[in-house]
Amino acid sequence: MRYILPGSLIILSLLSSSYAKKNIASAKIKANNHISIKVPEPSDVAYDAETGHLFIVSDNGLLFECDINGKVLRRSPDKGMDFEGVEVKGDYLYVSDESPRRVYRYKKKTLRVENTYSVPYWGPRNSGFESITYNETKHCFILISEKNPVKIYEYNDDFQQVKEYSFNAAKDISSARWYKGQMYLLSDEDMCILRCDPNTYEVREKIKINILNPEGLAFDHDGNVVISADDLQRLYFFKSIPANNE
């Protein structure tokens, strides 16, 4: 018979308690509706609270402004190479161009590029930054590499790197969005939304979605979720994510 000393029992108890605290809540949401859109390979979507419109970027290096029903209202005359992420901040749009490792700042009123920032990243051309959002909690931009490895990088307003974090809670990350004090990350391969701590990016909840190739993530003014599907050229609409009582 093997005996466990009292001190060992205390250690095991502490380890069990620590493990329990790291358990991730889970949920599942189902789309209410989906629509086809005239945006080729929509790789990300952002909601503009000022106009109620959606800004959608394409893998073809194109930026579109659409109404909430996905109807194209405008297209920027400025073209990039491989747009993967878009964020709305004030009077500007920020677009991540994966292949050349650049972020473009567009004037929202004109949809013209006003500034370009270099954001170096090692690896093949299609293995750069897949996501961009502004973390209102920490007052910084974040860019996220898609996979192998997934890493979260924080930048100041001039896109000078401030900090980086390793992230291993998903196979890949295809989009990111800060919303009401939480950071939400979308995983294409895992088909889920991860609700994360906006300071540490520790995962608090995993929300499963049943969508093929979910690439972009946005929240409208009511908290309803909008997801763009790349290959299917669609937008999916969900009710708001249920509140998690932790």
Describe this protein's structure.
The chain has 246 residues and is mainly beta. It has a single domain, classed as YVTN repeat-like/Quinoprotein amine dehydrogenase (Methylamine Dehydrogenase, Chain H, 7 Propeller). It contains one helix and 21 strands. The protein has one helix at residues 6-21; strands spanning 25-28, 33-36, 42-48, 53-58, 63-66, 72-75, 83-89, 92-97, 102-107, 112-118, 129-135, 140-145, 150-155, 161-167, 175-179, 182-187, 192-196, 203-208, 214-219, 225-229, 234-238. The chain has a five-stranded mixed β-sheet, with no helix packed on it. Strands 2-21-20-19 form a four-stranded antiparallel β-sheet, with no helix packed on it. It has a four-stranded antiparallel β-sheet with strand order 3-4-5-6, with no helix packed on it. A hairpin with a 4-residue loop joins strand 3 and strand 4 (53-58). The chain is globular.
Note the main attributes of this structure.
mainly beta; 246 residues; globular; Methylamine Dehydrogenase, Chain H; single chain; 48% strand; disordered N terminus; five-stranded mixed sheet; 21 strands; four-stranded antiparallel sheet
Outline:
By secondary structure, this protein is mostly beta strands.
Mean pLDDT: 90
Taking all Cα atoms into account, the compactness measure Rg is 19 Å
Uncertain residue segments: 1-21
The helix count comes to 1
Taking strands numbered 1, 2, ... along the chain, how are they ordered across the largest sheet? 1-18-17-16-15
N-to-C SSE string, H for helix and E for strand:
HEEEEEEEEEEEEEEEEEEEEE
Work out the number of β strands.
21
> Number of domains in the coordinates?
1
- Beta fraction: over 45%
Q: What is the CATH third-level topology name? A: Methylamine Dehydrogenase, Chain H
Indicate the overall shape: globular
Distance between the termini: 41 Å
Architecture per CATH nomenclature, i.e. the level-2 architecture: 7 Propeller
Q: What is the top-level CATH class?
A: Mainly Beta
Q: What kind of sheet is the major sheet?
A: 5 strands, mixed
Helix content: under 10%
* CATH evolutionary superfamily: YVTN repeat-like/Quinoprotein amine dehydrogenase
* Derived structural class: mainly beta
